[in-house]
Amino acid sequence: MESLSSSSSFSTTIKPHPLLPRAKKVRCSCSMKAASAFSYQKFIQFALDETKYSTSALIPSSLQENFSTLKAMDGKTELRMCSFQAPKIRLLRSLSIEASDGIQVLDFAVFPEAEFDLPIFCANFFTSVNTNIVVLDLNPLHDVINETHYKEKYYKSLIPLGLKYSELLPWGGKLTSESLKFFSPIVIWTKFSSSQEKHNTLFSAFSEYYKAWLNLMDQTTEETDVTQISLNREAQHRYLTWRSQKDPGYHILKRLIGETRAKDVVKRFLFNGVNELGSKSFLDYFPEYECKDGSINEKRSIVGKSFENRPWDTEGVFIGDTCS
User: Fold this and answer.
1) Integer angstrom CA distances of residue 207 from 39, 53, 76, 222, 243
2) Which end of the chain has the least Cβ crowding within 10 Å, N or C?
3) Measured between alpha carbons, how far is 188 from 286 in angstroms, rounded to an integer?
């Protein structure tokens, strides 16, 4: 599939993305042009600054050659992408959208190298004039509902942080049991009306969660067991396969840039690695989604069970039915 920059249908500008010292207030290529009172660009800049000071070798990813800045088909909405890598980080990437009608989207994630079983940092935010839909989490690479060891290793010390923000940003309503497999006990899933106070709280949550992830990264050691590395790689590939097939953001991208380009962004940028880290298909991992004709059931949930309230207690113990 040809890259975004080769399309004559879009105005695409590739820009360098310098790593900025904190003392200088120079904006990176992901920074927004000074405009609205609220912007997700400061979230991105915060993460890049913090990552730079946690690792001395954060460098631009080769993905930036093909995925940078482009205009949508309406000629007004702007999509901005940036991507980096580091010794323990396979990919740090961000997609932000600023639409002319006031809609803003942030999809920010950090994926570890397979030699590390670190959780995947995930921030998916949608903002309109009045509404905000938020998912913020350190998505577990391995099962945290049934595997006590992994939960203890990465989440036990973070439960107080999760409780703090679950009070400030309450549970957002029904969440499917399929999606829950990829969330941790400290996930923030919330909806709220736009206000400066809530936006400040969200930035605070993003900042603290990201610092927590960087702290885990600093402490983790490289795995040398070939079998465990293979398990880590497959677990990440399973996650990427699910997200690339079921991520709701695809529909926004399809509307903005068309089906072909949307698939390109999803497969090669947002969930980069789905074609490289493994060979299993979506139905290999999730056979319950296969239709009689061999196609994939496009429904978000086929189990039918959803969680109206937060399914973890104050100790981080899952109190819903076990997700198999």
Assistant:
1) 15, 14, 30, 25, 24
2) C
3) 25
Cβ within 8 Å of residue 184, ≥6 positions away:
119, 137, 138, 139, 140, 144, 154, 155
As to burial, measured by CB atoms within 10 angstroms (0-12 exposed, 13-18 middle, 19+ buried), residue 288 is exposed
Quick check: helix, strand or coil at residue 317? coil
Tokens 């605070």 found at: 204
> Which of 102 and 73 is assigned the larger pLDDT?
73
DSSP per residue over 21-83, as a string?
A: PTT-----TTSPPS--S--THHHHHHHHHHHHHH-TT-EE-GGGGTSSEEE-TTSS-EEEEEE
Rg (CA), the chain: 19
Summarised one tens digit per residue, pLDDT across range 62-95 is 999 999 988 899 888 999 999 999 999 999 999 9
- Can you name the residues that pair with 81 across neighbouring β-strands? 95
d(CA 32, CA 80): 9
Q: Which amino acid is at 235?
A: A
Closest of 175, 198, 181 to residue 147, by C-alpha: 181
Q: What is the Cα–Cα distance from 95 to 76, expressed in whole angstroms?
A: 16
Q: Which residues contact 180 (CB under 8 A, 6 or more apart)?
A: 307, 311, 320, 323
Q: What is the Cα–Cα distance from 312 to 180, expressed in whole angstroms?
A: 11
